[in-house]
Amino acid sequence: MRIAQDARYIIEYFHGIGRYSYELLCALSEQDDHYEYVILRNPRHRSPIVTAPGFSDCPIRIPPVSPGTLLILQRVVRREGCDLLHSHFPVGPVLRSFPAVVTVHDLQAIRVEGFSGERPKWVEWAHRVFYRYAYRHTIQNADAIIAVSQATADELLDVYPGLRRSVIHVVHEAVDRNRFRPAPAGAIAALRDRLKLPERFILNVGNTRPHKNVPMLVRGFHEFLQQADSPDAALILAGVRDRFRPNVLALIEALGLQDRVRFVDYVSDEDLPVLYSAADFFAITSYKEGFGLPPLEAMSCGKAVVAARAASLPEIVGEAGLLVDPFDAQDIGAALARLWCDQDLRHELEMQAHVQAQKFSWERTAQQTIGVYHAILG
């Protein structure tokens, strides 16, 4: 049996869905010799993703979120002789003669106001229409749905009440614990010097789309500075520059935080675990999060977390963090101050972080995903 893996979000650099695709495929190559896999690859990733036996590579120039996925992708899957398509995001063929599994990370594209914003109005409108149709058709017609968290599964049933609960399988994402672990002091010192990082800082990793709620984190940090005597406190925001960043920069300037809050652009795979290790702790105030890889990566590097009491974050963070109201800057500021100033609490949560991170592994993710394939193909 041959399974097509739609991994087109893996490009020259990748995070989010691309990271999920890469780690899942690597884990499948180590866990499964029952099926053959055809990886539908974005040509922007210039080399095969997995070279293990049973894996073949199929470069495809159709953009992931495009009419081509809806109308043309099915021909590629049939041409490759595949018995099943696993879409790693909820945009799949409209017509098909083969069963399909779809992974749903989140529903931000149809649930978050302004997700497609900061573009010309007609482009924003076209994206909204496309996402609503593509998500509904792909999800409602899937033979099985993999939700990356219980929070995502619950939201699916809320948005699409006609879905049968039995087709939804909660399969958590994970973290590569061989890569995300506490970095040695020498590596931290070298990165601190290269990126001109302060001695102490709070870290956030991700983009600045509306649901990431970065402006509220900045406001919470401002509140923290009012509450605590911390002349050395800093907030580092790491991630690829996007079209929403100017709004955050304007807020930083309006609050007079230019010397305290700083963006660090794209961080390499090699540097990211070191950056987590260099931070005092990690903070995330997203009000919509399908899974939450950055807090899990931070915990795997031994860091405590301040996280929003929203969506999947309590499910992922567990007892390893302080939970806050994502819409209350004072609550966020109080939690930041508490974790910054209370070293004993920070160490206690760091111990919990290690335990919590151990609950997630890509090996388990791959095994549970294979179980979904078995249920369809036998």
List the helices and strands and how they pair.
Blueprint: E1 2-6, H1 17-31, E2 36-41, E3 55-59, H2 67-71, H3 73-79, E4 84-87, E5 100-104, H4 108-111, H5 121-140, E6 144-147, H6 150-159, E7 168-170, H7 185-195, E8 202-205, H8 214-227, E9 235-238, H9 245-254, E10 261-264, H10 272-278, E11 281-284, H11 293-300, E12 305-308, H12 313-317, E13 321-324, H13 329-341, H14 343-357, H15 362-377
Parallel strand pairs: 1-2, 1-4, 2-3, 4-5, 5-6, 6-7, 8-9, 8-11, 9-10, 11-12, 12-13
Helix pairs in contact: 1-15, 7-10, 8-9, 8-13, 11-14
3D structure, described in words:
- With 378 residues, the protein is α/β, with parallel strands linked by helices.
- The chain has 2 domains: 2-174 and 361-377, Glycogen Phosphorylase B (Rossmann fold, 3-Layer(aba) Sandwich); 185-357, 3-Layer(aba) Sandwich (Rossmann fold), CATH 3.40.50.2000.
- The protein is 42% helix and 15% strand.
- It has 15 helices and 13 strands.
- It has helices at 17-31, 67-71, 73-79, 108-111, 121-140, 150-159, 185-195, 214-227, 245-254, 272-278, 293-300, 313-317, 329-341, 343-357, 362-377, and strands spanning 2-6, 36-41, 55-59, 84-87, 100-104, 144-147, 168-170, 202-205, 235-238, 261-264, 281-284, 305-308, 321-324.
- The strands form 2 sheets. The chain has a 7-stranded parallel sheet with strand order 3-2-1-4-5-6-7.
- Strand 6, helix 6 (150-159) and strand 7 (168-170) form a beta-alpha-beta unit.
- It is globular.
